[in-house]
Every structure is written in C-alpha cells, then in structure tokens.
C-alpha cells in the first residue's frame, strides 16, 4: 500500500489524473472526473466501475451530485457545463456561457441552482431547471479556481489566483427568484448584466474580500455550521478565516505542505481540517489549535482534489493516478460484554455501560480524554469483572494501553485517578489478576499483574499481529496466516490452525466455541482450536455474537446473518447502516452503531432455531415452532430434504406431488397412497408399487397393480401370497380379456389342468392339449383329443412323463395381512400431530395445579394465628433476655495472641455470636444449644432432634483439599456470605423456614390429601423439629415461623386423632362394640376440631359426617353437613353434604350418645384426644402450643416429642 | 537459578504436583532434566505416587537409600500406610541432622508431623526454611488447621511480597480466603476456577476446591455440578463425596446414600470421624435432660 500506515483506505482506483470528485449522498458511489475527459462512476464499497460518461472534450475539473435528484453536473476545459442523468445515463443538456476552462461546479442545496467558477475570472450561477444563466459575478482579476454555495445561508465563497478569497452575498438573487416573476428570459439576462434590478437591489455583491495568501488560492470551503472558511493556496498554506455579519478576518494559518496546497475542507462532524497538496500528502489539522494531527503521504502521486462524504466518515482524494476513498479513524467502538452488561467507549471517549435487561445506559463512568492522542479513538476494551477494571488500547503513538479501575457507579465524566499504562498494540485480560500485552514491534507478549509488573514474558509465533483471550490460561495468538492457541503457563503453542487474516475473535457464551472473523470469512473453532466449520462472505464481515443456544449471528455491511456450528447459514435481516453486534437475546439483537450508541434490532430467530433444533433432534422445540410460526416456504422444505429429514419436510408441504415424493423418500406409504390416489398417474403408481413391495406391504402393491392393470404381476402376487380366490378371479378376468397367455399362466398357478387343456384346444394347439392331458393322466381327455384330431396314439411320439406337478399349497394365509418386514416410519412428528404422544400435547401444559394446595394457601391467609399471645401466660418464669450460656465473657480478640497454640475455630465463634440454639448446634456446641432450648421452650427429650442437630452441624462445614498428605482444611459455610467480621459471622442453616414452608409443608399437605396420615404425621413432626432448631432473617419472619409451627402442630394433632380412630379396629369390629363405636364417632368428630386448612377440614368433616350418618347420628351429621356447606369449596363434597343434609333433616336425632357438643367451644387434648372445654384448666407445650389436660403436666409433649408439657420458658428464639 | 521459578526446569512438574495433577507428575518425562534437578523431580514423583495411593511401591523404591530426601519420602510412605510412629521417628532423626538446610526434609517432615497431630513440632521444623514456597504453603495450612487465621494471613502476605506470581502463593491465599470469607470467597473462587477450568491445570482437587468456594458463596447449583463432574472423573474421590454430602445437607436433600459411599471410599474421613464424635456428644448431652413425669 502506498499510503502511509494508519490511513484506512477503503477503495482505490487506477486511472489518469483525477481532478474532480463527488460523493453520492446516499449510495456508496463516487463520481470522478478525469484529466482525460472521462467521468467515472464507481461503487466504492464493491470496488466496481458502474459507468463512464464521455462527452466532454478535454479535462473535466468539476463534478457534483444533486442531493436528491438522479442528476449530476460537470464542468470542463471545453467551457461547458453539462447536467447528466445517471439513470438514463445521458447528458440532459449543456449550459454554455463561460469563456474559459471551468474549474468547479456545485449544486445549490435546495434551489435549482448551479455555481461555477471559471478561468474567465467569473463566477456564474445557473438555473438548471429552466437552463438559464441567473447571474455572473465579476470581481476576481485572475482565474476563479473554486466557488461554493454556503450550506445554509445565501452566500458564495470563491477563490482565485488573484490571491484573494471573496465572499459574495446572493440574497438579492434569491429574493428575485423566489418571488413570482413574469420577467422573460431575455429580461433576466439583461437585468443580470448590470447586476442591479429596477429597485436597486443587486443580485450578488461582494461582501468580503479576504486577502492573506501571497500566491494564488486553489480551493475554498465554508464550515458546515460555524462562520468559518478554509482556503488552500499555492503559497503552501491552509488559511482559516472567520466572518461575522459585518466583517471577516484571518484566524490562523496551518503550515506544513511543502508544495502547492490544492484542496481543503472542514470535517463534517469533528473539529478538523483536511487538506491535500501537490507535495503528495493529505494533512489533518486540529481546527481549534491549528496543529497537525496526521499526515498521510503517498509515494508518487500529487493530490489535486479532496472531498468529504456529507453523512458518514469517508473522504476521497484525487491524485495523479486515480482516486482513493479513506476513513480517518476506525468507527468500531471498543466494547466488552460481561453477563448482562455492555461496556463501551463513546465517541467522546467516555466509558459507559449498558444493561441488556433493563435496557438502560449508565451515565458516563469515566472519561478517557487523556488516552492516546485526542483524535485517535481507543481500539479495544477488555473488562475484568472481579476487579471491575478495564484495559483500553489505543493505536496512537505506536500503540499504548491503559489499565483503569471503573468506579462503582457513574459519577460523570471524571478522569481516572489511578491508572497504569504502557506500550503495546493489544492488551487483554487473561485471568482475574493477569493481563497480556502484545508489542508487535518487538514481537513480545508480556503477562502482567494488576500492578503493571511483568510476571512473565515470551516470544509469540513469528508475525503475530494480535492476541485474544483463549480460554482460561490460554491466549489466541493471531498471525496473518494462522491462529495459535498458546498456553501461558507452559509457554508453548498447544494447537495451531491455518486461517488467513483473522481480525476478531468472538467466544460463545459457554466458552466452548469461538468464531474467528476475517474480512470475508467466519471460521468456527472449538476451544481446543479444532475447526468446526467455515463460511465465506463476499461482503465484508463486521462483527459477530453468539446466541445462548450456540448459534453465531454475524453482521456484514448490510445484513445480519446466522450460522450454525455445522456451517448452515442464512440471512436474518437487512441493515441500513453498519452496526457492531454485541449480544443476542431472544428476538433482540443488541448492537452498537457507528456513533457508539447501543441499539436494539428486532429479529425473527425462528429459522435458525428450527434448524438448530433439527440438528439437536429437539423435536418438541421443532414441533412448537411448526405450530406457532409461519415457517414455510420452499427453502425450508428443500433444506429439510437436503439434510435428510423428508419426514419432517412432509409436515410442511401441501402440494401433492411434493408430498408424494417426500412420502416415498421417508417411506410413509399411507401418505404416498393418499397422494397417489389424488394424482392418479401411472408413473406414481409404479413408484409406489416398487416402494411398497420393498416394504412388503402387498395390499398396497396389489392396489397399485390394479390401478396399473398389471394383470400378470397381480397374478404372481396372488400366487406368492397364496390368495387362491383372487387368483381364480384373475383367471376369469383373463378369460374375459381373451388373453391366452395370461389364462395359461393363471391356470398353471392354479393347477387347473382341464382349463389349460380347454384353452389349448380353443387355440388349436392340440398337441399341447394332448400332452397336458397325457401328463396328468387324463386318459379320457386324451382320447377325445385324438378323436378330434383324427390321430391315434401310435402316430404320436411322446416323451416320458415324470410325476405330475403337485400344486403348492399355501401354509400361512399371508394374503390376509401385510408382512411386517420394514418398519413403517411414523415420525415423532406425525405422532405428535396426531396427538398420540402423551405429555406432548400441543397446548402449553398449564398443569392444573393441585387445587387443594392453592386453596389451602388462601385459607392459610384468612385463618389467623392461634395462641401466639399465650406467651403472656408464661409470666413468672424468666421472661427476661435470653441467657446465652457461657458467652458473655467478652470477645477474645484473636489477633492479640501472637504466637503459639491453637486458635478458636469459627464454629466456636458462632456460639459466641448468636443466642440462637441453631447457631450453637451448627458450631457443634450441642450442650449449650440444648440448654438454650430447655430454657426457651422447656425441651427435655432431645433424641428426636438428633438428626436435625447433626444436619445443621454438618451442613456448615466444607472440606477443602489442600496440601498433599494432610487432612483437608475445614471451612465454615456462612449464611452471612458477605460478612467477614469474625464477630458477626453466622452459620448457614439448612432447611430454613422458607424451605420448610415451600417443601415439607406442601408434602405434608399432599399426604393429608392422599390420606397417608402415617407419613403425614412424620412429615409434620420433622417440620416441628426443623423449625425448633432454626433461624430467620428478620422479626417479621418470626411471625411466619410461629404460624408454620402452629399449623404443623394442628396437623399433627388432627392426624393422630384420626389415626387413633383407625386403630380402633375394622368397621365390623367397631360396629360390634358399642363402646368402640362411641369412641370412633367421637374421634371422628374431634378430627374436625384442629385448625387445619379448610380443604383438609372438609375432608375431616366429610369423614365425620359419613360415619355419623352410617351410625344414624343424624343430628351430629347434620351439624357436620352444615359446616361443610358453610366452608364451601369443591362441588363434589358440597353435593354429598347437601344430600346428607336432606337425609338428616328428615330425622334430626342421634341414635348413639357421644361426647361431642356441636355447640360448645372446646379444644382437643393432644394426649388423650378428649375435649378441653373452654373455661377449664389446661396445660400446653411451650413450643408448639398443643393443649393438654392438666394431668399431663410434666410429660413429654405428644406433638413435638421434645418439650415438657406445662413447662414454660422464655419462648422460642429464632431471630437474634 | 531456582529450578521452580518461571524459567526453571521444574516449574511444570512442580505446578502439576500442587495443582493435584498427580498422574501428570508421575508421567512427567524427567530424562531431559539436568542432574541437579533429578532428585527433586524424583521426590515429587514419589510424593505423587503416594498421593495416588501407591505408598508401598514408593516405599520399596526408596528402601535403603541414604539421601535424606528419599528417607523423608520413606517416612511419608510409612505414614500413608498407617505407621505413624515409624514415620515420626524417621522424621525426628532426619530433622536433627538435615532439618536446617534441606527444604525437602522440612516439607515432608512438616507434613508427616502435622498429619501425626504434632503441629508445634511441624511448625518448629518448617520455620527453618529459607524461601521455600512449599514450606510457606504448609505453614499456612497448619495455621489454618489450628484456626490461627491471623498467622496464616501474615504468612501469606509476607510470601506475596517475594513471590508474586507463584501458584502456591495463590493457592495458600485462597485457602486463607475461604476461611476469612466476605469478598475473599469470590477471589478464592477465581483462583480455583481458573485452575479447574483450564485443560492444562485441571484436576480433581481444583475442581473440588472450586465447588467448595461456590458452596461458601451460596451457589449450590454450580457447586453441585462441579462436584458431580469431579465424581464422574473419579467416583471414589472422598473429598468430592464429602462436600457433595455437605451440599445435600445444605439443600435439604437426603444424604444417606452419599454417606455410605463416603464410608466406603474413606472410612477415616474427618467428616465421618467428626460426625461420630458429635453423635456421641449429642447422646451424652441429651441424657442430662428428662421429663418430670412420664406419660
């Protein structure tokens, strides 16, 4: 490349000297007018010559595209201005008037005007619509080299070899021509000649004459927004001028060109001036400081003209041998993605982050103004999540990097206070505390720590141009022809893959695959650098990102495309401007545009998802897609067919012919038959018959032969399947058809000798008839034949006969059914589509959640807590603060003890840090834990708590294998994960209350519902035990915990009542004994008392009601029925209750007297299962609140099996 | 030049050893090593074989050898075979004669003494070291096992100053980190994850270590998948079973089967020993209480 390094050349053409250039405002086109009289139209993106326009005579120096119309204008040394249509590719007309070479021509941005500058020292304004000269501006006294309209105001600026720059006011001209005018062309021409109209207005007057250049001025241009002018002259200077309403003055001079400066312009968006000169350089200047920013030198070609694209970051310069289109800087914003965050650098060099989930941009996190040189954007960004730091590289000054810590939140455009920097072309994090820096000049890679010290250093493979993360501990090293996977630790290449010109590497989200992007290729490799697939694009590939499912989406200049791991690819959508993809999530593609703004593009991922699920054989997913999207079309069908999935393609196709083909291909005979019937073409039947034959499906074969009228084949088929009846029919048919061969054949198959003889006779083949008869020993027949022919036996010369053929008899009636030789391939899809597969219903499974559970939840909310305020009754016992045993001696600061001896383990600290029994248990301090429980809730029988204690104890210790030969290191799992102050750490609690409520409690409910009361009672007791030794996170959760405990206790009581009833004996035994019957009815009634969830209570009530009805206790039964109806709920239960109620109301009498007063208020003693009427004295368990008759005081609670009944304590403590 | 330094010959075998890649250590090609590195490499290989459960073979390999290093290996092998007293005796003799300057004797001696429960003696022997990171790592571990987190922190911080990039320092720091908790959990996790996820450095031990860090971070699902991955590689690996058991307890699942498989693979595992101890403690403590009246 001839241009100096650093210039991003996008296109170069070879031609004779290029004198004029114009960019098309929308399309990737550039017009080049040449010294050789040709005007070329190039597509600079594709690099193709679109057209040539050759009507000028001699050099063409000026060209310009119209902003909106398909027009362009040119002006040449033939004094002619030509207006062309590039659509019709013709010159529309020519404007004559100039008397010498034309230097520049430009369209007005809105009016139908053209301004031209000519060596005849005039500047002229033309109307291209009525093809007239509007105005001739005189004043320059040497060649006018350049004249341009102001982009907004009614001004023209011109440059001349008379060393001056002139600014002209053309507001008069606009006024005259925007007003309706009746002036004829001649009038206008006349008026223009003296430049003033009848009102004394002047069309164009010189506003300012700018003098400062001391040689001729070649080019001049307005600033797009500011009142600035830049000019380039033969004095090798670029001059900047400023103007106000009333005056204009020289601001400064840019010195540097050492030959004539031929062109200059303002950067459309940035504060830069760009100039080109005969010294073969293009120079970029800082508009504010007027200092040189870049110089691009070309070896042999002098520059003659320079132009800027009005919208995008592109420039073009014409030189002795053609034109070049180039960018000043890379537009790819440096960015990095981590989890849900995108970090990127804006055009202002601010680091920002963007949250994909919330779809919000952060405020500026940091400003990188000082990084590199001011006009060079950073190249790459690497993010380190563990340190929240970034590595930014900049190509300025031969490459440099900077390591910066990001602030926690954006606090505006602050400069980083603490950064580390160094020289390098690429810098990336390779581990949480390491980064790699490549220096291409010295060809070294340094691995540095976060303090920027070199930890190790090595020589990468020859010609290394870039480095990328290569998976943990590895680097991907890019050379122009290959990619190396390099192990940093072992300092060697582990794998190498020959890929040309890789520019970017994109890792998949799971880190298993990487996409290597080069200009026109995408190569997908595994993490061990094995090539998986590769694809080629004719259009430049810009970026790529991975879908979560392992699909690569990549963007070219104008498309977003996808590729699967196997290389299948396709277009996802088109792009109207270049973007850089950073992430795909569902239907959203997140990307950064060239202005470094995050954008979301909508895509339809159906096609690639479908293909992906096809490859993964994820049929449910495919089915879902088939059902829910309009994914049809020839492409997907031929794709499926090509990939060997005709059975799936079959599901998409309507066209019978295609369906038939596909059905044959996948052996789906049913569909094939159906289609063949529809189409009824012999060719199809033939194909179907052979396919069916291969399957052994002879019924279909038969049908095909019938359709095809293949009688012989049919006969043979019947013979082989042993279908005699049909064979006989075939014989008849043959007779009808008069087809003797066929008749003979059938007779032969059937063993019908007479028929054969008869047939031979009919066709006068008497010898054969005779022979047949003779061979089968039919002597009479022989005789009759002899008679008929008038011959005698002696005249005949007969061979000897063997045994007559015995007819084969079918042993198995195979014709009755098909032979199951080839499995019919009914695909998963057909089954699913036919709804045959269970669990694969096409509707989303909204499994009707168990109704009971849901209702139970509601019930639970309505029902209030029981007996929480019973605590007050515990007065008199120590209600003060909990006494935490042996703890309060003050915290021993471990750090003060300097040497020697063992320290205190964290487990011991837990006991110190917490007054909760569970924390003591986790710390292994079982004695103190028991002490606490004893004091809090009167726990005395600890045996049932043993599993819980050990569970809590074990859950909080991990075993970390450390040095070889030593025991693993015990570490302590905390529930306070973020805490590191030893005085605040607390152990993890397995099966915390939330877990109990969402798992064990539900299981308990389930067993209640399923009537598995033995299991249920066990479950509820374990809930009680787990809740007893537990901890919660806040005071409000304590209430929830108490609710859980109370509920578990109620269930335990309820279940134990019902279990007692069942243990009375079988129904017959109970009925036989009046005492048992009475007790049974009582227990059934008591079962309805505990405060269990309403749906469950309904079950208890139903049970009690049924039993009562059966025992003719109609009054009691009626009360149960009424309660059921009052509770409401499941219709079935209500219906039963209504019927029972009707029955009971006829005779509301009890036949057996039981101790159950439906109107009294009472609770059930958990030990004796008898009523405790309100008002009588009772005792209770301090933990679970179950009630007992006073005589049970001092015994172990039947419900929790841990606490002593009647022993009050300070109450269970679950939160410190 | 220090053979264990980044440029040294032994760096890879040494790293393999400390990453728990014992088979790689045994398979390491030592033929190209320079003569002065042959012995340390051999010691590493013998230690790896002991770690792989080939203590008897290792013992017969060094029988009758006079080098103090190999005698120390013999002690280690004896201990692995259950002969604690014999091992300690060998080490005590060795440390008197060679303990001052021979790092291998210090390392192996320290290991043997600590494993025999003689932490103070182990620390006394180890404290004689002259810049051996292996020794530092051991000291850190002993401090941690003594619950002297403060001393362990000091040791690591000191070592960090002169051995920035060493694997052992990273490991020791992570061990300490898992004890200290808070932000250190995450840092320890990064170290272990880095080792466990890279093909070149992955081992059962680093995988389990990663899982342990995840457990402490409360990421039980990730921990479980790491542990299961470890168990897939070696279903007998006691540390993986033990930690998976702990995980089951944390998530409230049934651990009975795992406990049985732990008993089968390492009946002496500290988890089981500790559990038995605590079970007795519970029974003893519970016996102190009873209800006033029996029902």
Automatic annotation (TrEMBL), chain A:
GO terms for cellular component: COPI vesicle coat; Golgi membrane. It is found in: Cytoplasm; Golgi apparatus membrane. It is a peripheral membrane protein. Keywords: Cytoplasm, ER-Golgi transport, Golgi apparatus, Membrane, Protein transport, Repeat, Transport, WD repeat. WD repeats lie at residues 53-94, 95-136, 137-178, 210-251, 254-295. Pfam families: B-prop_COPA_B_2nd (PF04053), COPI_C (PF06957), TPR_COPA_B (PF23953), WD40 (PF00400). The keyword Cell cycle does not apply. Residues 348-593 form the COPA/B second beta-propeller domain. Residues 621-777 form the COPA/B TPR domain. Coiled coil: none annotated. It comes from the Eukaryota. CDD domains: Coatomer_WDAD_alpha, WD40. GO terms for molecular function: structural molecule activity. One of its GO terms (biological process) is retrograde vesicle-mediated transport, Golgi to endoplasmic reticulum. Residues 848-1214 form the Coatomer alpha subunit C-terminal domain. The coatomer is a cytosolic protein complex that binds to dilysine motifs and reversibly associates with Golgi non-clathrin-coated vesicles, which further mediate biosynthetic protein transport from the ER, via the Golgi up to the trans Golgi network. Oligomeric complex that consists of at least the alpha, beta, beta', gamma, delta, epsilon and zeta subunits. This is Coatomer subunit alpha. It comes from Podospora australis.
TrEMBL record, chain B:
GO terms for biological process: endoplasmic reticulum to Golgi vesicle-mediated transport; intra-Golgi vesicle-mediated transport; protein transport; retrograde vesicle-mediated transport, Golgi to endoplasmic reticulum. The keyword Protein transport applies. It is a peripheral membrane protein. It comes from the Eukaryota. The keyword Ribosomal protein does not apply. It is found in: Cytoplasmic vesicle, COPI-coated vesicle membrane; Golgi apparatus membrane. Keywords: Cytoplasm, Cytoplasmic vesicle, ER-Golgi transport, Golgi apparatus, Membrane, Protein transport, Transport. Transmembrane segments: none annotated. GO terms for molecular function: structural molecule activity. Its main location: membrane. The coatomer is a cytosolic protein complex that binds to dilysine motifs and reversibly associates with Golgi non-clathrin-coated vesicles, which further mediate biosynthetic protein transport from the ER, via the Golgi up to the trans Golgi network. The coatomer complex is required for budding from Golgi membranes, and is essential for the retrograde Golgi-to-ER transport of dilysine-tagged proteins. This is Coatomer subunit epsilon. The lineage of its organism: Eukaryota, Fungi, Dikarya, Ascomycota, Pezizomycotina.
């Amino acid at each position: 490349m001839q241009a100096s390094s650093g210039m991003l050349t996008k296109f170069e053409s070879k031609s004779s000297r290029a004198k004029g250039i114009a960019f098309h405002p929308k399309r990737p086109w550039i017009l080049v007018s040449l010294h050789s009289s040709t005007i070329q139209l190039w597509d600079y993106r594709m690099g193709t010559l679109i057209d040539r326009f050759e009507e000028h005579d001699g050099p063409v120096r000026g060209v310009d595209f119209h902003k909106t119309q398909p027009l362009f204008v040119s002006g040449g040394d033939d004094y002619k201005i030509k207006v062309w249509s590039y659509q019709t590719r013709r010159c529309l007309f020519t404007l004559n008037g100039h008397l010498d070479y034309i230097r520049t021509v430009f369209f007005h941005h809105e009016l139908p005007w053209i301004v031209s500058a000519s060596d005849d020292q005039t500047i002229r304004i033309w109307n291209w619509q009525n093809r007239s000269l509007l105005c001739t501006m005189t004043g320059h006294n040497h060649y006018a080299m350049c004249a341009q309209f102001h982009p907004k105001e009614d001004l023209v600026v011109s440059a001349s070899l008379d060393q001056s720059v002139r600014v002209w006011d053309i507001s008069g001209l606009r006024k005259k021509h925007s007003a309706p005018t009746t002036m004829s062309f001649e009038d206008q021409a006349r008026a223009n000649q003296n430049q003033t109209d009848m009102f004394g207005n002047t069309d164009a007057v010189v506003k300012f004459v700018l003098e400062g250049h001391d040689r001729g001025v070649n080019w001049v241009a307005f600033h797009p927004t500011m009142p600035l002018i830049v000019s380039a002259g033969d004095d090798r200077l670029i001059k900047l001028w400023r103007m106000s309403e009333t005056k204009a003055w020289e601001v400064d001079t840019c010195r540097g060109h050492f030959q004539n400066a031929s062109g200059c312009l303002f950067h459309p968006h940035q504060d830069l001036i760009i100039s080109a000169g005969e010294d073969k350089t293009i120079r970029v200047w800082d508009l504010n400081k007027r200092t040189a920013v870049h110089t691009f030198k070309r070896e042999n070609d002098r520059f003659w003209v320079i132009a800027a694209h009005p919208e995008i970051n592109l420039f073009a310069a014409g030189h002795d041998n053609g034109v070049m289109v180039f960018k000043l800087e890379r537009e790819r914003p440096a960015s990095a993605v981590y989890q849900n965050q995108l970090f990127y650098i804006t055009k202002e060099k601010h680091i920002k982050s963007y949250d994909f989930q919330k779809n919000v941009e952060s405020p500026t996190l940091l400003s990188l103004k000082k990084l590199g040189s001011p006009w060079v954007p950073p190249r790459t960004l690497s993010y380190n999540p563990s340190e929240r730091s970034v590595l930014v590289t900049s190509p300025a000054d031969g490459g440099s990097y900077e390591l910066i810590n990001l602030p926690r939140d954006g606090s505006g455009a602050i400069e980083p206070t603490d950064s580390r920097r160094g020289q390098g072309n690429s810098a990336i994090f390779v581990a949480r505390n390491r980064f790699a820096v490549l220096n291409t000049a010295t060809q070294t890679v340094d691995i540095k720590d976060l303090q920027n010290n070199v930890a190790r250093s090595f020589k990468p493979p020859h010609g290394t141009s870039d480095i990328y993360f290569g998976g943990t501990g590895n680097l991907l090293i890019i050379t122009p022809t290959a990619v190396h996977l390099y192990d940093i630790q072992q300092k060697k290449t582990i794998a190498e893959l020959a890929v040309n010109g890789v520019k970017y590497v994109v890792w998949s989200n799971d880190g298993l695959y990487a996409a290597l992007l080069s200009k026109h290729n995408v190569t997908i490799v595994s993490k061990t650098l094995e090539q998986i697939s590769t694809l080629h694009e004719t259009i430049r590939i810009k970026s790529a990102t991975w879908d979560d499912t392992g699909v690569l989406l990549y963007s070219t200049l104008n498309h977003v495309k996808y590729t699967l791991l196997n290389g299948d690819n396709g277009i996802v959508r088109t792009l109207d401007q270049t973007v850089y993809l950073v992430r795909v999530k569902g239907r959203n593609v997140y990307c950064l545009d060239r202005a470094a703004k995050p954008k979301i593009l909508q895509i339809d991922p159906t096609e690639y998802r479908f293909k992906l699920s096809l490859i993964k054989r994820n049929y449910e997913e495919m089915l879902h897609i088939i059902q829910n999207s309009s994914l049809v079309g020839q492409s997907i069908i031929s794709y499926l067919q090509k990939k060997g999935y005709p059975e799936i393609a079959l599901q998409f196709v309507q066209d019978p012919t295609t369906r038939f083909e596909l059905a044959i291909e996948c052996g789906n005979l049913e569909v094939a038959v159906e289609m063949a019937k529809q189409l009824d073409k012999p060719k199809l039947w033939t194909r179907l018959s052979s396919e069916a034959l291969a399957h052994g499906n002879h019924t279909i074969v038969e049908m095909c032969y019938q359709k095809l009228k293949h009688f012989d084949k049919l006969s043979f088929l019947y013979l082989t399947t042993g279908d005699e009846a049909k064979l006989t029919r075939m014989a008849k048919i043959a007779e009808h058809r008069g087809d003797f061969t066929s008749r003979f054949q059938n007779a032969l198959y059937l063993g019908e000798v007479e028929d054969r003889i008869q047939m031979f006779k009919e066709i006068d083949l008497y010898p054969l008839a005779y022979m047949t008869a003779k061979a089968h020993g039919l002597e009479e027949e022989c005789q009759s034949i002899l008679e008929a022919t008038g011959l005698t036996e002696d005249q005949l010369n007969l061979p000897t006969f063997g045994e007559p053929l015995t007819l084969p008899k079918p042993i198995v009636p195979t014709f009755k059914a098909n032979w199951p030789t080839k499995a019919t391939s009914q695909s998963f899809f057909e089954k699913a589509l036919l709804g045959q597969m269970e669990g694969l219903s096409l509707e989303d499974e909204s499994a009707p959640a168990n109704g009971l559970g849901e209702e139970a939840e509601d019930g639970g909310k309505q029902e209030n807590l029981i007996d929480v305020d019973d605590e007050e009754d515990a007065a008199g016992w120590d209600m003060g603060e909990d006494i935490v045993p042996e703890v309060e001696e003050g915290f021993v600061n471990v750090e003060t003890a300097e040497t020697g001896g063992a320290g205190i383990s964290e487990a011991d600290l837990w006991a110190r840090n917490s007054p909760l029994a569970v924390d003591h248990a986790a710390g292994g301090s079982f004695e103190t834990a028991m002490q606490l429980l004893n004091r809090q809730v009167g726990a005395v029988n600890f045996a049932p708590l043993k599993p819980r204690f050990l569970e809590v104890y074990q859950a909080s210790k991990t075993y970390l294998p450390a040095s070889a030969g030593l025991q693993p290191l015990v570490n302590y799992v905390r529930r306070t994960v973020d805490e590191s102050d030893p005085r605040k750490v607390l152990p993890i609690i397995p099966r915390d209350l939330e877990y109990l409520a969402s798992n064990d409690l539900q299981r308990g409910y389930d067993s209640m519902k399923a009537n598995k009361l033995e299991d249920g009672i066990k479950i509820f007791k374990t809930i009680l035990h787990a809740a007893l030794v537990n901890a919660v996170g806040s005071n409000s959760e304590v209430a929830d915990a108490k609710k859980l405990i109370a509920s578990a206790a109620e269930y335990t009581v309820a279940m134990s009542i019902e279990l007692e009833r069942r243990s009375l004996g079988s129904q017959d035994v109970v009925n036989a004994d009046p005492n048992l019957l009475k007790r049974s009815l009582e227990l059934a009634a008591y079962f309805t008392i505990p405060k269990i969830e309403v749906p469950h209570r309904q079950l208890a009530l139903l049970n009690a009601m049924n039993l009562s009805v059966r025992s003719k206790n109609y009054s009691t039964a009626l009360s149960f029925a009424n309660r059921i109806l009052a509770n409401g709920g499941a219709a079935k239960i209500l219906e039963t209750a209504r019927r029972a109620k009707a029955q009971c109301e006829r005779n509301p009498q009890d036949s057996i007297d039981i101790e159950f007063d439906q109107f009294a208020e009472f609770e059930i003693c958990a030990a004796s299962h008898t009523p405790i009427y309100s008002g009588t004295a009772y005792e209770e368990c301090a933990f679970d609140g179950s009630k007992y008759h006073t005589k049970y005081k001092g015994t172990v609670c039947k419900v929790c099996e841990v606490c002593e009944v009647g022993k009050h304590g300070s109450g269970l403590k679950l939160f410190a | 030049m220090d053979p264990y330094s980044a440029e040294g010959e032994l760096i890879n075998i040494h790293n393999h050893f400390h990453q728990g890649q014992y088979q790689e250590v045994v398979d390491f090609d030592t033929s190209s090593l320079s003569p002065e590195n042959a012995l340390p490499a051999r010691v590493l290989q013998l230690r790896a074989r002991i770690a792989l459960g080939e203590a008897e073979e290792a013992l017969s390999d060094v029988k009758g050898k006079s080098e103090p290093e190999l005698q120390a290996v013999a002690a280690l092998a004896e201990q692995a075979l259950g002969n604690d007293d014999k091992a300690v005796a060998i080490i005590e003799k060795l440390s008197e004669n060679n303990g001052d300057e021979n790092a291998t004797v210090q390392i192996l001696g320290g290991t043997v003494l600590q494993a025999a429960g003689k932490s103070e003696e182990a620390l006394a022997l180890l404290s004689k070291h002259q810049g051996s990171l292996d020794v530092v790592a051991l000291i850190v571990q002993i401090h941690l096992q003594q619950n002297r987190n403060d001393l362990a922190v000091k040791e690591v911080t000191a070592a960090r100053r002169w051995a920035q990039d060493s694997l052992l320092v990273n490991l020791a720091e992570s061990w300490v980190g898992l004890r200290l908790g808070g932000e250190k959990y995450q840092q320890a996790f990064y170290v272990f994850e880095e080792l466990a996820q890279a093909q070149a450095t992955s081992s059962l031990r680093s995988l389990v270590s990663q899982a342990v860090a995840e457990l402490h971070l409360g990421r039980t699902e990730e921990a479980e998948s790491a542990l299961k991955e470890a168990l897939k590689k070696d279903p007998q690996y006691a540390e993986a079973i033990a930690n998976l058991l702990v995980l089951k307890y944390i998530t409230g699942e049934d651990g009975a089967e795992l406990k049985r498989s732990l008993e089968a693979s390492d009946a002496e595992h500290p988890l089981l020993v500790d559990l038995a101890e605590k079970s007795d403690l519970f029974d003893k403590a519970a016996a102190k209480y009873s209800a006033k009246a029996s029902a």
